[in-house]
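Note to self: the last two entries modelled the partners one at a time, which told us nothing about the interface. This time every component goes in together.
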Amino acid sequence: KQEVTQIPAALSVPEGENLVLNCSFTDSAIYNLQWFRQDPGKGLTSLLLIQSSQREQTSGRLNASLDKSSGRSTLYIAASQPGDSATYLCASYAGGTSYGKLTFGQGTILTVHP
Amino acid sequence: EAGVVQSPRYKIIEKKQPVAFWCNPISGHNTLYWYRQNLGQGPELLIRYENEEAVDDSQLPKDRFSAERLKGVDSTLKIQPAELGDSAVYLCASSLQGTSYNEQFFGPGTRLTVL
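The predicted structure of the combined assembly is written out below.
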C-alpha cells in the first residue's frame, strides 16, 4: 500500500524567503506525481504535475522535482509572498492495476508573514 | 470551460439523519472520484467510477455509504444514517481516462458537519 509523507507539517517564514517542501513515497512504481494547493475552506488547485518520465516541472516561482528511485519529490518556492500561505499537498498516481489512483500526503501548512 | 461542480457547499445535520452530495464533472470526463478529507489530513479515495461502473469502491463504508453515477455523468454520494465521525469535506474529482497522464481536477467540496 502506497504511503505518502510530507515534511514539515507546518512552516512559517518571512516574506521573500526561498523554501522547500518535501514529499516522500514508499512505492516507487508511481505513474505521476502532482502538487496541489488548498486554501482554507476551498478545494484543491493543481500547481504542478510531473509525469513519470520527467524529473521536474516549473511554473513561475514554483519548481517541483521527482526522484522515483529514492521515492522523493520536492516543491521549491522562490521569493515567497504572503499570498503563498496555504496548505500544500503532494499526491502520487498509481500505475498498473490501480492506474489513476491518487494517494495524498497529509499536507504542509505554509504561512508567509510580511 | 466549467470546472467540477458540487452542491451543496455546506451541510449541517444531526446524527442519524441522511445526507446526499451531488457532483457534476467536467464535460467529457469519463472517470469520476469521490474523496473524503478529514481535518488536517489529505483526501482519501472513497470510490472511483469509469463511466457508470464503480471500478474501485474498496474504501467506501458500504454499511452506511452509497453512491451512484447515472448515465455516466452526474454522481450522488449518500450517507444514511450519518455519524459524528462522518464530519469532513467530501471532494469530487474527474479525469479523462486515456490521456497521457490522467490528471484529476477537483471541485470545491462539500463541508459536512454532523452534530
